[in-house]
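Work through what follows:
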Amino acid sequence: MSELALPFPEDRILDTTYYGNHGVPHELFSWLRANDPVRKFQVADYLPFWAVTKNEHIHEVEKQAELFRSHPQPTLTPRTRRFGDDEGMSDEAQAYVAELFRGSPVAECFQTGEIMRTLIHMDAPDHQKYRDLVQPWFKPSNLNAFEARMREITRELLDQMMGDGGERSCEFVNSVAVYHPLRMLCDLLGVPHSDEGFLLRLTNEFFAGDDEDLQRGDDPMDFLATVKEIYEYFYALAEERRRNPTEDLGSYIANGMIDGKPLPLKELVSYYLVIATAGHDTTRNAIAGGLLALLQHPEELKKWQGDLSLTKLAAEEIIRWTVPVIQFARTASADYELAGKHIRAGDLIGLFYASGSRDEDVLENPFEFRIDRQPNRHVAFGSGPHICLGMLLARMEVRIFFNEFLARVQSIELAGVPQMIKSSFIHGVKRLPIRYQLKPASSGN
């Protein structure tokens, strides 16, 4: 049977300009789910890949981690930004890296094409070993100890928004949303709050995609300079925590052991990198995207303000609706039949969570934003062995922020046109101008 003609440009599925101008291409994903849920794509500057768009098929792939591997490419990334492949780095990249890292204490991390090795890059048995290292920190019993601090951070930010009272305006993303998870992660890792601005810049650059407002520069090699700064920063943190252990997660990682040995340098600093960047960027995008959704659906905002007991359900709906991570990738280690398509060993597979979280077969009216949605079987956190390590922390942060925020909001509206990030990996609002009035702190507590 011949393949159905795609009624959209093929490159739209990963077109960062489209994502920046229009958001997630839901019309494309809806067509794929209905007509061709596992379809082979060939997009310029990307390796060929199978796009998996239905909720059930995403689960089917993710739960078979031995068959569908994260290594060597855990995301759908342009060739120009991969720097290395199975044959290693290009000559140009090798020369650039050699000069960039000359004399750096982390130079050994960049002697191969794989410039980082985080949990999302790992397969069994290493993946479970490294995940188990910090798993206790992300259990509910431990996270509950951070709840009071999360509320304190939220109230500090709201007091800053309040100012001298009256009606005010701000750009919500960079005035508020970025700092809520950033300050929590600084506390978690034991990073000085004076370094917030530095870490925020590096996080923006790390996840900038093709967004010129967030990129370090338009040369793909500039990304390596950002990674170098991140590595050197957390290398210094790890060295300090090994000399002077503390009670924070940063010290726990620095002094952690895998198979009775300290973490290798690349894996050590990669651990910090993934917690500090992914843990911050995805949560801020959920908070900013959640507020935008509420402003675009004022009846849901009013419903939530009238009944704060809906917060748990509403936070889950925000995460489903915003889907901060658009896609991850897997490589088949053997032939496999998926939705009637023959996947061959070595084939690259794109798991599109932004599509699976709007799947009509598992979600009732998925294009309706409902703060009381139940059940809510989205895939924003993934599933299987690679399910998001920090999902409980993210849920708690979203719940606490909006619970405090909605109790203080007297009025709020858009004060301009929102702007989205130009990225087909991380989905988020880049600019969210709002006009608002908050109640005094004593009225909101």
